[in-house]
Amino acid sequence: MRPNPNTCSKLGIAILVAALLSGVASAAIAASETKSKPDAESVLISKAKGIHKRVLTLDTHNDIDINNFGFSRNYSQDLDNQVTLPKMIAGGLDASFFIVYTGQSTEPDAFEAAGYKRAYDSAINMFESIQRMTTVLAPTQIEFARTAEEVRRIHAKGKKVALIGVENAYPLGDEKNALKRVKQFYERGARYMSLAHQGHSQFSDSNTGEQIGWKWNGLSPLGKQVVLEMNRVGIMVDVSHPSKESMMQTLQITKAPIIASHSAVRSLADVSRNMDDEQLLALKANGGVIQVVGFNSYLKTDSKERRAALKALREETKLPTEISLAALKRGPVGGISEEQREQIIKRVEQLDAAFPPPSRASVKDLVDHIDYAVKKIGLDHVGISSDFDGGGGIDGWNHAGETFNVTLELVRRGYTEAQIAQLWSGNLLRVMSEVEKVAQSMQAKK
Ligand SMILES: [Zn+2]
User: Fold this and answer.
1) CB-side exposure of 166: number of CA atoms within 13 Å?
2) From the CA of 64, how far away is ligand 1's center (Å)?
3) Which of 144, 172, 200, 238 could tie 134 with a disulfide, CB 3.0–4.6 Å?
4) Residue 169 Cα, ligand 1 centroid: separation in angstroms?
5) Residues 210, 206: Cα–Cα separation, whole Å
6) Which of 365, 394, 381 is nearest to 422 (CA)?
7) What is the pLDDT of residue 237?
8) Distance from the Cα of residue 400 to its chain's centroid
9) Phi (first) and psi of residue 253, to 5 degrees
10) Average pLDDT across the chain, whole number
11) How many whole angstroms from 299 Cα to the centroid of ligand 1?
């Protein structure tokens, strides 16, 4: 005999309701006995939760792993990556620029047809993979946006928003291909692009020139043409990795506002990836925006002594500046034998003991950088980024699932809901809209 499932479940529900009611009653009595009103901290948290839910949160820099776009393994699953759809949902992160990244090749044929082809093929694969996420793998959860207005429309429907940023224009190739490929990249969805990464490209010097010397003293002649072509087609110019001089020359020729998609403030952390006060003020004059990045070593830097010791160690072991110590510890890197790698790691451990690295940066440090930039150039020119899955992550914002903690700290510092909405997306979307308008007017003149 089988019991009637209906009767069983009804009885079960009745018992459950009775238990819940008595639980609610006793909890209410306990609350009224112990405290009469919620404390300031819980009021602040619930206020921040409301704001976090209402504002559109957009992170301008999240890298992708090309292996996460298959049917059996993809970003709709709870992978270990810092950004996945489940983490975006859990953390209330609404929109993300996913990155078509190309490391700057230093192979002998890097600036010849074969080197450019390798870079181009890899970039196209990344464009197609990101599109595949929104069209094949998770179309009900995330949608691709091509304009600032589309970002808002998709978000209003309750879906996550995907955009594309290109980190390093190197795959555009040489003067035969570069300009026409700017348009092609736009059509594939690119809405911002940096002209270099770590290492000089055919278009621009990189910030790494501060250690290794310059190739162009700013932008190359072709790089200047690419900036104008990006203005014309409607791609935001990203100056996070190029050198300071490259940024200053870009500002002289661009007809639209520019962005720094993932940088921090150099006055607070003196590294070449960050923006000094002169750069920040120039960005303000241009109407652009700096997306302050939650990246440990850009928020907090080494002591002078530690920096000197690391520099000496790099020189002695001939470890190029392009190879970070983190990358070295992670696994094999190009041009360095396994034996050398182990020796260098041992030396780094000795150095760490003598000159300890600073404690890990936290959400408080991130918001210190945001506060500094807001005071220096005004709230309209500041935004937020993580560089997740590309080296980003700090205490309290280790992955997209912890995004609320950033809003909480902003509320703690006294930012209003309208200001937080600007920091989280309003300013970046304003620049994106202006870039769209400049492109329209440039195209109308032809
Ligand atoms: Zn980067």
Assistant:
1) 32
2) 12
3) 144
4) 13
5) 8
6) 381
7) 98
8) 11
9) -110, -20
10) 92
11) 14
Angle in degrees, 0-180, between the axes of helices 221-233 and 244-253, rounded to the nearest 10? 50
Between CA 161 and CA 54 the distance in angstroms is 15
Distance CA 14, CA 256 (A): 65
Q: Can you tell me the mean pLDDT for 203-226?
A: 97
pTM for this model (two decimals) = 0.85
Pairwise CA distance, residues 404 & 347, whole Å:
39
Ligand 1 center–CA 262 separation, angstroms? 7
Distance 108 CA to ligand 1 centre (A): 23
User: Taking Cα atoms as reference points, which of 135, 209, 197, 143 lies closest to residue 170?
Assistant: 197
Instruction: Give the H or E element holding residue 117.
Output: helix 113-132
Cα separation of 357 and 351, whole Å?
A: 9
| Residue 2 pLDDT > 70 | no
Which of 1-15, 97-111, 163-177 has the lowest average pLDDT? 1-15
Distance (Å) from CA 205 to ligand 1 centroid: 15
Q: Please give the Cα distance from 130 to 393 (Å, whole number).
A: 22
Q: Ligand 1 centre from 387 Cα, in Å?
A: 7
Is the model's pLDDT at 29 over the cut of 90? Answer: no
Instruction: Tell how far the Cα of 388 is from the centroid of ligand 1, in angstroms.
Output: 10
Q: pLDDT tens across 33-57, in order?
A: 555 678 999 999 999 999 999 999 9
Q: Among 24-38, 82-96, 123-137, 407-421, which is the least confidently predicted range?
A: 24-38
Q: Please, what are the domains in the chain?
A: 43-301+359-444 (3.20.20.140), 302-357 (no CATH)
